[in-house]
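Exercise 3.2. Students should predict the tertiary structure of the chain below and write it as structure tokens, then compare their answer with the key that follows.

Predict this chain's 3D structure.
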Amino acid sequence: MTTALHQLNDLGFICYDPREQSGRRILRPGLPHPHDTEVIATIRERIQNMIYRPGEALPVGILARQFGLTARQVAHRACRQLIAEGLVHHDNKGPHGPGVYVTQPAPHHVPPSHEPAPHRAQNPNRLAGDPR
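Answer key:
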């Protein structure tokens, strides 16, 4: 029974902490696990500050040690929120092997320039409004 609870906790479906009064609670979809808020904020900040760059694998093991989590908890539970935000994605065939990678930003649409067209010499023999 406790093995199943630990697995569900690691995947982020429940919050299991035998030290709490109730011991476990089901998490609503879309809400991060309460033990992951700090690691999520840190990863988000490091992506925004270009510490973790697009196309790079997240150092899941290092983050796990830093925040007292397992690599599975970081990769599958904490990153769920960041995947929903489009900041990271799972890639089984990534350049560094299977892992969680920072998402390449979508190329943003650059509107056409509103500068006037290059100046063409006008034909002095042409009447105004004549398209020739």
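Discussion points: The chain is about 35% helix and 10% strand. Residues 71-84 form the longest helix (14 residues).
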